[in-house]
């Protein structure tokens, strides 16, 4: 195909915003759409080559995958090698175990599936995963396992039949993406069936330019189309943010913008001249390597620096990505693309051996649980605190597909499971508390664990996409608690502050919790007594109160656990890395109490609005975490297994307060008065 410098310029427009977005520059809040632009470019370029070869009856699957191997693998293998060296030196066992698993997935082009499967509630910080960005490579390679076969099947069909078929499949893919973006956003983001339409649109541009009139667009229309397309991409980059759901319908803006550039940008119009500038073309030529390098560099910098990275250093790291990109393009990518430098047999041998080595090493790292023996014992001991969780967390913690009556019943030795239980109702913050409570010798009753991640114990609140069916699940739980007379005592606990504030916690001292915001929506505002102009926090608070009040109205004795201070840092990981890097601190790891009080003020106000009752016991974990020897600080060391969930150690301290309070009120036994 004829070389088009403006397409390399378009690559630059795609890759630079991705890099700067991942570096955290707010100006590029929509920089993530660069990946969508890349998909269009890929669909266009590959289809241009395949379509012409199929029409001329000279297409070869073997030659096609040889070209893909020459293009993709050399730089990918180099980046994987360098990243592995640094990960070996700087990662805790659990981190390296996850990295090793991703190393396998990358080399079988299934990393998008792995990261989709890992994107649940307890997924580690994505910003710390060196190979996270390879999901897009996996999507492309999966697409190119299928797409050439489609072109071969339809090679004798009329051009309009081929075009119509791809249009239909692309529209179907976009429709699925739009349907799944709210119900299952990780699926929509990572998987082929919701991304295929972006590659398909690029393919349609290639087919239209190959089979349509030449030129497809007149000079004036082409100029307007190219400039309009470039404008649409820039609008997406600078105006989009996390609230714009891509690859749903909002993805049409950058995708159609990219198509406009492909169709309209030429050397004789403004868009083409802008994109063909030497600097733009230069960045575009190294864009693949730049994309490969930036995520490992950024992730490893975050791991090594521990605290917030300054904007100046982010610019240095971005420049380093481009520098390494040029080096790998000049001395790795280009030589491997030269068929005289390496034969086809050599290319496939290189691909097979390289992939086998990475797969074997990654598999060994996963099986060996991150090779803990490579690190000092003190480091692994600190990192092991991430496992200080309920032994029943994984098999007891999801009520979606389980009748409430069949929920886990936890009982210590000597406690009859047939005795009336204490129910613990909540989200993931109640799991360790349920286990710790069941181990309290003075409780005298089993504990019924009723928990669902990301779903508060409330009435009529649907929680974005993190907990599908939340309102229906909690309605079933509440109904069961009210209608089961043998359950007299209910402990209610949740991460109240997150639902109220929506944003993940930032402790202001470098501990910023990664993850998407959480949004609560009242299913029936009138049923909660809300007015039409009720604020978000009023609506959420009404849902919180309604759950507690209905239990009290039913004659239940309620122990209401207020917010647990959040840490911001993944505490075991932070402490282990400090030890690994030889960093010393004067006292235990802690956070600012004033920051916690500000963060939890709205949640406290909502819970305080529940009217006092002889059957209501209020438990304040902040009295345990924040009223220690260091004034104005909340201790987090040894009290969390991640950035916000109390460990079993902390849960035991809270459980002791619950039992003490119950005992003081004469509730010592769940079945007693």
Short description:
The chain is mainly alpha-helical. It has helices at 5-22, 34-55, 61-90, 93-107, 111-117, 135-153, 159-183, 185-190, 192-211, 219-239, 252-264, 270-275, 278-285, 287-305, 311-337, 344-367, 377-383, 393-396, 431-438, 470-483, 496-501, 536-553, 571-580, 593-608, 622-625, 648-664; strands spanning 409-410, 422-426, 447-451, 461-463, 489-493, 520-522, 557-561, 590-592, 616-619, 633-635.
Which SSEs are present, and which pair or pack?
Elements: H1 5-22, H2 34-55, H3 61-90, H4 93-107, H5 111-117, H6 135-153, H7 159-183, H8 185-190, H9 192-211, H10 219-239, H11 252-264, H12 270-275, H13 278-285, H14 287-305, H15 311-337, H16 344-367, H17 377-383, H18 393-396, E1 409-410, E2 422-426, H19 431-438, E3 447-451, E4 461-463, H20 470-483, E5 489-493, H21 496-501, E6 520-522, H22 536-553, E7 557-561, H23 571-580, E8 590-592, H24 593-608, E9 616-619, H25 622-625, E10 633-635, H26 648-664
Parallel strand pairs: 2-3, 2-5, 5-7, 7-9
Antiparallel strand pairs: 1-3, 4-6, 8-10
Helix pairs in contact: 1-2, 1-13, 1-14, 2-6, 2-9, 2-11, 3-14, 3-15, 3-16, 4-5, 4-16, 5-6, 6-9, 7-9, 9-11, 10-11, 14-15, 17-23, 19-26, 22-24
């Amino acid at each position: 195909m004829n070389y088009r410098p403006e397409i390399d310029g378009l690559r630059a427009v795609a890759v630079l915003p991705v890099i700067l977005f991942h570096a955290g520059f707010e100006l590029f809040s929509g920089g993530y759409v660069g990946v969508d632009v890349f998909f269009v470019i890929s669909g266009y370029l590959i289809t241009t080559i395949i379509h012409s070869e199929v029409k001329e009856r000279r297409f070869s699957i073997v030659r096609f995958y040889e070209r893909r191997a020459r293009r993709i693998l050399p730089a990918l293998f180099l980046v994987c090698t360098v990243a592995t060296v640094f990960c070996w030196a700087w990662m805790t066992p659990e981190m390296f175990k996850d990295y090793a698993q991703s190393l396998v997935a990358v080399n079988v082009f299934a990393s998008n599936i792995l990261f989709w499967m890992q994107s649940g509630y307890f997924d580690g910080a994505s910003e710390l995963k060196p190979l996270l960005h390879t999901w897009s490579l996996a999507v492309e390679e999966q697409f190119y396992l299928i797409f050439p076969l489609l072109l071969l099947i339809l090679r004798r069909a009329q051009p309009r039949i081929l075009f119509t078929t791809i249009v239909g499949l692309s529209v179907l893919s976009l429709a699925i993406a739009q349907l799944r973006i709210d119900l299952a956003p990780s699926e929509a983001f990572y998987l082929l069936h919701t991304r295929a339409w972006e590659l398909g649109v690029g393919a349609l541009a290639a087919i239209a330019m190959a089979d349509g009139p030449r030129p497809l667009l007149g000079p004036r229309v082409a100029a307007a189309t190219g400039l309009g397309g470039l404008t649409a991409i820039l609008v997406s980059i600078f105006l989009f943010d996390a609230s714009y759901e891509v690859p749903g319908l909002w993805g049409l803006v950058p995708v159609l913008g990219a198509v406009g550039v492909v169709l309209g940008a030429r050397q004789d119009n403004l868009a083409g001249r802008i994109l063909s500038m030497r600097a733009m073309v230069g960045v575009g030529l190294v864009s693949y390597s730049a994309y490969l390098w930036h995520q490992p560099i950024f992730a490893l910098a975050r791991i090594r620096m521990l605290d917030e990275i300054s904007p100046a250093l982010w610019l240095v790291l971005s420049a380093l990505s481009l520098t390494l990109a040029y080096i790998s393009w000049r001395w790795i990518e280009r030589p491997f693309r030269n068929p005289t430098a390496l034969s086809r047999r050599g290319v496939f041998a290189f691909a097979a051996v390289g992939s086998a080595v990475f797969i074997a090493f990654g598999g060994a790292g996963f099986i060996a649980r991150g090779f803990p023996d490579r690190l000092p014992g003190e480091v692994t001991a600190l990192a092991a605190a991430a496992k200080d969780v309920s032994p029943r967390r994984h098999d007891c913690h999801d009520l979606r597909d389980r009748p409430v009556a069949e929920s886990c019943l936890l009982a210590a030795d000597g406690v009859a499971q047939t005795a009336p239980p204490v129910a613990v109702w909540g989200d993931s913050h109640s799991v360790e508390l349920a286990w710790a409570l069941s181990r309290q010798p003075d409780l005298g009753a089993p504990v019924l664990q009723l928990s669902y991640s990301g779903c508060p114990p409330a009435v009529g609140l649907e929680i974005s996409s993190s907990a599908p069916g939340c309102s229906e699940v909690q309605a079933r739980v509440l109904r069961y608690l009210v209608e089961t007379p043998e359950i007299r005592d209910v402990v209610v606990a949740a991460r109240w502050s997150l639902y109220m504030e929506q944003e993940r916690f930032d402790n202001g001292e470098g501990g910023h919790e990664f993850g998407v915001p959480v949004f609560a929506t009242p299913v029936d505002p009138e049923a909660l007594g809300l007015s039409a102009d009720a604020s978000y926090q009023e609506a959420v608070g009404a849902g919180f109160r309604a759950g507690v009040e209905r239990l009290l109205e039913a004659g239940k004795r309620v122990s209401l656990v207020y917010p647990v201070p959040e840490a911001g840092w993944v505490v075991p990981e932070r402490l282990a890395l400090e030890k690994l890097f030889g960093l010393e601190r004067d006292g235990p790891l802690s956070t600012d109490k004033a920051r916690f009080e500000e963060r939890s003020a709205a949640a406290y106000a909502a819970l305080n609005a529940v009217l006092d009752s002889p059957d209501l016991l209020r438990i304040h974990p902040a009295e345990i975490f924040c009223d220690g020897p260091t004034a104005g600080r909340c201790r987090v060391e040894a009290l969390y297994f991640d950035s916000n969930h109390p460990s079993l150690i902390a849960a035991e301290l809270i459980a002791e307060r619950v039992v003490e309070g119950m005992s003081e009120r004469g509730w010592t036994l769940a079945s007693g008065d």
